[in-house]
Amino acid sequence: APAVALTYMFWVQGYKLNEAFNLLMSKRSCFPKLDAIKSATADILTGLKKKPVTLTWSGDNCSTVEISGLDIGWGQRIPLEFDEERGLWTLNRELPEGHYEYKYIVDGVWTCNEYEPITSPNKDGHVNNYVKVLGDNADSISAAVRMMAGDAPIFLEDL
């Protein structure tokens, strides 16, 4: 619910995102994800198209492989399907343009795939895999980058 309140303040009431966040935090300690709100704003206002993405985990020496992060957040998991012919666990998903971090959970153990791009350590020292989904429309990408860079509300007439 805090993210909904923050988004309402940002989208409807015209607060700068950081101002809305500080006001919300002064009333209630919570942890809404500012980057997720910026991403959703960019997706809605620019109409970013989804692109197919395939993620794979190699090996048949495990019983379950899941992914967390991506567009579903760190509290959710998506199971990968095992392709016996190729000996790969795969996930086919359509994602809007953007940068997505994720991690594999192999038999309950969180890990990165060393054969896919890996982030630098974050403030907590964690590293994740990531995928960049690129679009075809330079104007929508440019508008999304402008929205993600600042914290001021951007309206359709600004695009």
Automatic annotation (TrEMBL):
InterPro entries assigned: AMPK1_CBM (IPR032640), Ig-like_fold (IPR013783), Ig_E-set (IPR014756), Starch-Glucan_Phosphatase (IPR052832)
Matching Gene3D superfamilies: Immunoglobulins
Superkingdom per UniProt: Eukaryota
Gene Ontology MF, one: starch binding
Gene: PTP
Residue ranges annotated for the AMP-activated protein kinase glycogen-binding domain, each copy included: 52-134
GO biological-process terms attached to the record: starch catabolic process
Signal peptide: none
GO cellular-component term (any): chloroplast
Name assigned to this protein: Protein tyrosine phosphatase
A Pfam family it matches: AMPK1_CBM
